[in-house]
Specification:
Largest sheet: 7 strands, mixed
Helix content: 25-40%
Number of helices: 8
Radius of gyration: 23 Å
Shape: globular
Low-confidence stretches: none
Structural class: alpha+beta
Number of domains: 2
Strand content: 15-25%
């Protein structure tokens, strides 16, 4: 929920109605409150700005469907290699000191583009600055042409179980003992992680905690200096602060384990689903690729 006190600017009055009007045209979903709220919240989702494209650089292409009507390309568009490089260069501009900019651009981005949302994957056959969007990506009309990045898939994603997935596995007859064992190991590992700087860094990295403040990098640098949390209490306020941070991190992970059953699965990764643009795969086949 966002609240605003109306105020005047050189461009006119700014209030809730003017802000909603500036986001785009929601007339197609206004009669469905749930969808209307979801479309408005799309404009407020956490993203990072990258490049701006011109209208003529955006091409609409049809969705791909199976003979039975299944939608293969739900929310998946394509982009040229040049666009991918420009997005990656802009996206990593503030992160160049961490070495990501020297890496080749990933082949897939999760994006917001005006009233569009979904995935963009590289199509090597496209030349110049081209983005191809599909009807399934189109949610509402909006004038904005900024490509906003929700996630760049430049590294493998850890795999986690969750409550819906566990219910599905149980319904399909998968025994619960292995799942409970994974949960017990996750709890034990989380509790003991804060006792070592190295394991604490692994915990933060795996659960995506403290990324805005580069906490994982800080802990790894401390580990290189042979710092020890257990015997470093005499070193003052910083170590005390660090211990409180790790305590909060442990509580956060344990809370997710308890209420969301967010259980990490070792030696497993989450695959990002995109379409086979080249019509290469046969029925019941997938292609799994890693960027590392």
């Amino acid at each position: 929920m966002w609240f605003i006190c109306p105020f005047d600017t050189d461009a006119g009055l700014v209030n809730a109605e003017s802000i909603r009007a500036s986001l785009g045209d929601f007339s197609g979903v206004i009669k469905c409150p749930a969808r209307y709220g979801a479309r408005i919240s799309q404009a407020f989702s956490t993203t990072e700005a990258s490049i701006t494209v011109e209208a003529e650089e955006m091409i609409r292409i049809p969705d791909k469907k199976s003979t039975s009507g299944s939608l293969f390309t739900d929310g998946v568009g394509t982009m040229s290699p040049e666009i991918a490089r420009e997005i990656w260069q802009e996206f990593t501009l503030a992160r160049s000191k961490h070495g990501r900019r020297s890496l080749p651009p990933p082949s897939t981005f999760q994006i917001r583009l005006g009233g569009l949302k979904g995935m963009l994957c590289v199509d090597e056959r496209l030349e110049g600055r081209v983005i191809c969007t599909r009807p399934s990506m189109h949610k509402f009309e909006a004038p904005d042409r900024m490509v906003e990045i929700a996630q760049a898939f430049d590294r493998p994603l850890f795999m986690y179980l969750n409550r819906p997935l566990i219910m599905l596995l149980e319904t399909l007859g998968v025994p619960l003992d292995p799942i409970m064992e994974l949960q017990r190991k996750a709890v034990d590992k989380t509790i003991t992680a804060s006792k070592s700087i190295n394991t604490a860094a692994e915990l933060l990295e795996q659960h995506g905690l403290g990324t805005s403040f580069h906490m994982t990098s800080i802990l790894l640098n401390l580990h290189k200096l042979d710092a020890d949390l257990e015997s470093a209490s005499r070193e003052g306020e910083f170590v005390s602060f660090l211990k409180r941070v790790l305590k909060f991190a442990v509580n956060h992970v344990l809370r997710d384990l308890k209420y969301k059953a967010r259980i990490p699965v070792p030696n497993a990764w989450t695959l990002v689903g995109v379409a086979d643009e080249y019509d290469y795969l046969k029925a019941d086949e997938i292609y799994g690729a890693s960027s590392c």
